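ok so i was messing around last nite and threw this chain in just to see what happens. nothing serious, just curious
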Amino acid sequence: MQERTYFLTFLSTVLALRGSSVVRQPLRDPESGSLLCWNGEAWKIGNQLIQGNDAEYVLNAFLNATRRHSDDTNDTLAAPNHSLQGFVDLLSSITGPYAFVFYDAQNHRVFYGRDALESKDWTEVEADGIYVLDLTADADLSNAVDRVTHHSPFPKLNTQIQAHPIPATKQDSPAMSDLFQLLQCSLSVRTHGIPLPPSQSVAPARVAVLFSGGLDCTLLVRMLHDALPKEQDIDLLNVAFENPRVVQAAGVSQLSQTARSAYSLCPDRITGLSSYSELLAICSGRTWRFVSIDIPYTDTQAHRSQVISLIHPHNTEMDLSIAYALYFAARGIGKVRTESGEQAIRYTTPARVLLSGLGADELFGGYTRHATAFKRRGYPGLADELEIDFNRLGKRNLGRDDRIISHWGKEIRYPYLDEDLVSWALRLPVWEKCGFGQADICEDGSIPLLEPGKKLLRLLAWKLGLRNAAVEKKRAIQFGARTAKMEVGKTKGTQTLS
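result:
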C-alpha cells in the first residue's frame, strides 16, 4: 500500500444521558488510533441490552468488527473486505436512534451513517445505507465514498385483507396484550437509568412528556407511571399560544376578555387539564406537574428567525407552526400551580429527556387522511396510506424535530417508534389496528362507540382507566396549540416561508 498523509478533524458534543459519568467525545482507542463520534442511543446490540454508557460499548463493538487478525493472509484486500461485512452486520443489529462517524485507523477508512428511521438529524446523509470513505483511494477523496446497503430492521407493512366480514377489534384480543407488553418494554429502556444533570445532586423530574392531553401522550404517561419509581416526579409540558387571528375572529367587543383567555381556551390546554385530572385520580402516590407554557405572540415573533433556521431545509408554514409548539415546549419554561391551587409560580423543568407520542398515528391509522383513504378505497387504500406515512416519517418529522429539541440541550425519545414495536405493528393486519368499517363491539354499553382511528390504542387506554383520552378526537399539534395561521389572511400550510 502506498503511504499517504491525510489530516482529519473530528468534533463531537455530548449531552451525557447514559452511564454514571460524562464520557468525552470523540472516543479514541489508544491502541489502534481509531475514533468514534456517536450521537444517539444504542438500546440493544443484537438481543443484548446495553447498560451504562452506550458510546463506549459501541466503540468496542466497532473495533472488534473491523480488527485485523493475525491469521489474515492478505492484509491489503481480504482483511478490510471481511471487516467491512462484519461492520455492516453489526450496525444492522443496533436498535435505537443514532448518527455516527467512525474512523477505522487500522484499515484507513471512515464510516458514517444513521439509523434506518433517520431519527437523528444529519440532512446531508441519507439513511439508505452505510457510507465508507476509503482514505487509500488513488482518486480524489470526494469520489472515494461508497454506500453499503445494510439490513432494514423493519418488515414490509402487512397489506393482507381479511375476507368479509372484518372481525371487530376487541379489548381481549391478543394484539391488545402484545401492544401493552411492547410499550412497557419500550418505555422501560427509554426512561430507566437517566442520570442527574451535571452539577446537580437533586432534580425534581428526570423525564418530561410533551403533553396535549390527547390519546397518544396520555397513554404513554399512564404507562410511565407504572414504569418509573414513584419517588421520581413527572413533568407534563403543555403549550398554548396567543394567536392574533383567533383573537380578531372573536370580535372587537370581546378583545380584552379573549386576550386574557387566549391560553385557557386553547384546545390543547382544555384537553391537557382534563387528562391531567384523570391521571391524578387513577395514578396516586406520585408528584405530577402540569406545566402551563403560555407563549405571547410577541415571543413567537421574537424567536421566528431562530426557529426557521432550525427547521431548514424544511420551509413551509406547516413546518413552522409545528416547530413553534415543539420549540417552546422543549424550552420547558412555564408555570405550575401550588398544592393549594391558588397561585401559579414560575417553573423550568430540569428534565433533559422528553417523551413524544409521535409514530402512533402513522402506525395505527390516526390521521383524518386515513379515514378518507378507507372511505374511498377500503382497507387496501388505508394500507397504502399507512405505508406512505411510515416511509416518510424520518424525512418529514424526525430530523426536523431533533434539531428543534436538541437546541435546548434536550433529547426527544419516541416510545411508539421502538424497533420491536414498529416491526410488530407493521406485521399486524391493518384491520386489527383500526376500527374502520367495523360494528360496535360492546353491546352492553360498558365501552362507548370509540373513534375507529387508532382503535387498538383507544381500547388499551380505556382498559387502563383513561376514559376521557380514549374518546378524544385526533387534533394536529398546530391546531391544538394554536400555532397555525397566526397571521390574518389566507395562508396555507403548504405555502413556502417568506
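not much to say yet. The longest helix spans residues 368-391.
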